[in-house]
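Final report, Chapter 2: Outcomes

The project's central promise was a pipeline that accepts a single protein chain and returns its three-dimensional structure in a standardized token representation, suitable for archiving and comparison. That pipeline is now operational. To close this chapter, we reproduce one record exactly as it appears in the project archive, with the input sequence first and the structure output second.
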Amino acid sequence: MASKRDYYEVLGVERTTTAAEVKKAYRKLAAQYHPDRNPGDAEAEERFKEAAEAYAVLSDADKRARYDRLGHGGLGASGGFSGFDPQTFGDFADVLGDLFGFGDLLGGGRRRGRRGVPGADLRYDLELSFEEAAFGATHTLRVPRLEVCEECKGSGSAGSAAPVTCNACGGNGQVRFSQGFLTVARTCPQCRGRGTVISDPCRRCRGQRRVEQERTLEVTIPAGVENGARLRLSGEGEQGLDGGPTGDLYVLLHVEEHPRFRREGPHVISELEVAYPQLVLGATVEVETVHGTAPLEIPPATQPGEQFRLAGQGVQRLDGRGKGDHHVFVRLLVPTPGSLSDEERELLRRLAELQDKPVRERRGVKERVRDLFG
């Protein structure tokens, strides 16, 4: 007993540490000292065992209470660790399985049972125009997926011959092998966990029990979706086997860029070129929005880069709480030399002589958009 280190010290936690923090500390040590990551390192293997023993006690409320009162001696003659008790290590599949893909660890823990093989989830990439994303649309999808073979009804057998026991796993559906000091169980690669193999395979599915079929679906795209959004169509993935559930279909949306508009959530942003006299004297101009044109009042002495808001002229919000706004950033329209008449050129020279003012630098539109939307 005297040679054993304190379990809290082993995991590097305090005595007041919560169960969740104990588990987190153990996961960190398990990842660091696991034999897979330290092949041939006896010290790392011992540290891994030591951490597992400490976790077995501190993750169990009753054992932890006895240990806190009586130390190692309160856990029995073996120090509270007589091998890997499946009840004690019921969540090792969660703790180590996530890290190393062990699945049914140690042949114990929480076994999933044979409730059928679930169908795989599928992904479909759908291109949308800017307008389709803004106003919604309906698209027809043609999705290839695996479905249960109609000829053999999913048995995989061509005739009445029953499947035979798999000789690789002996009908258990799992094969076991040593992994460091652990014994690990994994799904049998020959029978894929069924425990049996087909002796007379179906001619259509060749014993695979499923065949690829193309399924036609209509999907409704709600108004206001954004680029990268994902729609889930429940039960439209691959069909399962042996009563297993059908997977889901995930539709990933890719929204095309618009030549004049840009989205920031439900808000639309555009730039408007305005002539110098209109900025100085003020004017009423027509602005193109996703809903058509809308009038915009430009007050006198408007500076290039200023922003105006057209309330409710943006995109429908997904939560149904109305539409966003349309934000317009004005830019100074500078005419090209060839577009000016002699009279206009002469007037501009005269104006330049009258004003004779230095040029001031102003922040660009991109910086102002960043300030507006964060």
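Archive annotation: The longest strand covers residues 137-148.
This record, like all others produced under the grant, will remain available to the consortium after the project formally closes.
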